[in-house]
Amino acid sequence: MTTIADIKKNVEGKMDQSIEALKNNLSKIRTGRANPALLDAVQVEYYGSMVPLSQVANVALLDARTISVQPWEKGMGAKIEKAIRESDLGLNPASMGDLIRVPMPPMSEERRKEMTKLVRNEGEAAKIAVRNLRRDGNEAVKKLVKDKTASEDDQKRAEADIQKFTDKHVATIDQLVAAKEQEVMAV
């Protein structure tokens, strides 16, 4: 038997997941600074199968503008370099012995504006997800009222609570997007 409390808890939990997904997506968007998470999406060929870069090498920061990639096996360096170069990140790795340095090129004004648009799109997608969850939650509550397992007063209170969750999560999304835009536009 689903209760209004279950519905509210479920809605809030899923909204929190939307926020986490947004944070994860935003961490992959490139700013002028180096960030090891940037290379998370890079896939490297390893004994015939494609694996994430983090499974074949240690990825760390050398300084604010350089990522270091240290392969765990000799002979992987060239493959890792090729994978980074062919990724759509616009990076140009350089190897120094066993260590691969990935300098972050400074971003042009145009590129920064493109990145800001990407950040806004991610934020908008997260807001849409949160609003869809609000709708689903409200529909679930209405169904309880229709099945006579909850009163209309309960419905009004539940919808008000769900709206509060929605407002809180949308505000968080706006803050995350604004912070990321600032980070992208900082030179």
UniProtKB/TrEMBL annotation:
One of its GO terms (molecular function) is ribosomal large subunit binding. Keywords: Cytoplasm, Protein biosynthesis. It is found in: Cytoplasm. Pfam families: RRF. GO terms for biological process: cytoplasmic translational termination. One of its GO terms (cellular component) is cytosol. Its main location: cytoplasm. Residues 22-185 form the Ribosome recycling factor domain. It comes from the Bacteria. Responsible for the release of ribosomes from messenger RNA at the termination of protein biosynthesis. May increase the efficiency of translation by recycling ribosomes from one round of translation to another. Belongs to the RRF family. This is Ribosome-recycling factor. It comes from Hylemonella gracilis ATCC 19624.
